[in-house]
Amino acid sequence: MKKNLPALQENKDMVVSWVYTWSRQKEMSVNEQHVILRILEACQNQVRGLKIKDNMHKIEHGLWNVELTMPISDAFFSNYKVSEVKKTLLSLRERSFEYDNSETGEWWACGFIEKPEAGFKKGMMKFEVDNRLWDVFMNFTKGYREFELSKALSLPTSYSLRFYMLISGQKAPIQMTIENFRKWLGVPEDKYIKKDGTHRIDNIEARIIKPAQKELDETCPYSFEYKKIRENPKNPRSKVTHLLFSPKYIQKNRDPELEQKELQAKIGNIAGSFGLLDKDVSDYLMFNLNMTKEEINANKALFLNAQKELPNLVEHLADLKERAARAGKGIGWIINGLKGKLKGN
């Protein structure tokens, strides 16, 4: 019998940073992933300036952490057990997120949540998220993935959810070594390993890849095809060294209302007499710089010129945003800074 899904006020397209999507994590339960999805939803609401007008959801920023309050049913199936909620929140508290930036040499770690609380008679839960992790969730400078919240919440395994978040909206194939694939999904080191230390590719396929592929094929607008890359391509018995995942779009699984909203948003945000902005540019302006449609359209000629003259415009915008934050400046400073970059180009 199919479980009732966690409560969903409305389906929506979620944006998650590539920094988090590509992060390596130990294997998570579906319940843990659902809690994280709700944290991501809260981040997105903040980015878009949305305020939930009820007494059930709260976001309070502190000096070190962000405190979130929400109904337990937001993240757990309606027939949840008290022990299940406790186990999930404790596991997320004990689980570490590691940030390791080889470019800057920066490394840090924190728990996914802190100070979890639950009021089971009222059906509410509360916990804190480290400010640094909150910033990772909202850091779109390295790119992002967009996916449907309802589809993500309905996926039955954490592996299928991770695949969906990775592949959704992706256009180019993604290639991984077997070792990196295992680390990305958090597959335990002693699982699917032969006595000689090599990987059991057939088991990885049968228990991880193919079930996830089937689940995405049946319910999600994005799924994937995959190919095994061998050490010697001409020898079908040679060692598999890499996996190549190619995204595929499944129109029939797309929420028609969200698809219509997406089309309207593209027209409203980037269409006009000056032509079209690239989607990654317009999305960065909206989601990372928090610019309104009016602000984007008012400066569209500048952005289109910058898009044409400056390679990797999003990186330039990210640089200006960081410098503006250090100087305590706003959008006007970033606009003038972009004009300066164009003059110096």
Automatic annotation (TrEMBL):
Domain Initiator Rep protein WH1: 28-167
Name of the featured protein: Initiator Replication protein
Family: Belongs to the initiator RepB protein family.
Species this protein is from: Prevotella intermedia
GO molecular function: DNA-directed DNA polymerase activity
Endpoints of the signal sequence: none
The organism's place on the tree of life at top rank: Bacteria
Pfam family, one: Rep3_C
InterPro entries, per the entry: Initiator_Rep_WH1, WH-like_DNA-bd_sf, WH_DNA-bd_sf
Gene Ontology biological-process annotations: DNA replication initiation
Cross-referenced Gene3D superfamilies: Winged helix-like DNA-binding domain superfamily/Winged helix DNA-binding domain
